[in-house]
Amino acid sequence: MSIPPHALDLLRPLHPPETTFTRSRDLISPSTSGQQYLYKEAARPATQLVGEAESLRRMNEACREVAPRLLGSGEGEDGKRWMLSEWHDLSSIPASDTRLADFVARMHLAPAPPGQRFGFPVPTCCGATEQDNTEEESWATFFGERRIGDLVRRIGDPELSRLAGEVQRRVIPHLLGKLDVRPSLLHGDLWSGNARFSQGRQTPITFDPSSYYGHSEADLGIMRMFGGFSEAWFRRYHELVPKTKPVEEYEQRLQLYKCYHHLNHTLMFGGSYRSGAVGLLRGLLRWADERGL
């Protein structure tokens, strides 16, 4: 397969002058290095590709170790959108390796751009779901409307709508409305399948982001949903990013953040994920009942 000139313009300065490049489907290989590159292209509007490229660009700026390097993105002469990034050979992260906690913490602690609110400049896709990243001044408003509210409207399930509506009215204002948090850059889909060990870097790495700016703990919800991250990982992370006050409501916040991903999987796949979402929403409402909220 031919390699577009705009990709070669980005690759040639990274390698010796005698280097030749070959392409096999989406992978580009230089003759003088073992580092391969991933070239993606898609017809407009290419929402997922554009969102992934912007996510990687900002993650690279926040912490260069946390994700593959984005070399460039744009629109080709044929009108298709494209992106070029590093490709990594991947394996399982050793159980004792908690370095990814350092990288994620560094990403979360990186200052957001001036004037950045909760949300993101472009839509991003969590799985197949295009997320509503319309920016909001309030984290409680963003998460309640742009995450929970948006998904239950799209799912169209009466019971989920009723339960989620109660959580929006009674739980979210209490759990999130009083938090003193700033917009942190999130991976957005940080389950264990999107975190592996890079053979080239010899460090853990994340990929397939669906970023937005939100409360740092929101990234931890899906990590608890599917598992794969040790208690040592969480201890190391919270050494660097302490649990948000009030600490005694930390577990309830993670249940709420996990609920978003159960709702997203309900939208994409249905089945048992709906039961999980119902259970989490009911649990949050029981917690609110116990506190007279």
UniProtKB/TrEMBL annotation:
Transmembrane segments: none annotated. Belongs to the fructosamine kinase family. This is protein-ribulosamine 3-kinase. InterPro entries: Fructo-/Ketosamine-3-kinase, Kinase-like_dom_sf. SUPFAM superfamilies: Protein kinase-like (PK-like). PANTHER family: FRUCTOSAMINE 3 KINASE-RELATED PROTEIN, PROTEIN-RIBULOSAMINE 3-KINASE. Keywords: Kinase, Transferase. Its EC number is 2.7.1.172. It catalyses: N(6)-D-ribulosyl-L-lysyl-[protein] + ATP = N(6)-(3-O-phospho-D-ribulosyl)-L-lysyl-[protein] + ADP + H(+). GO terms for molecular function: kinase activity; protein-ribulosamine 3-kinase activity. It comes from Rhodotorula toruloides (Yeast).
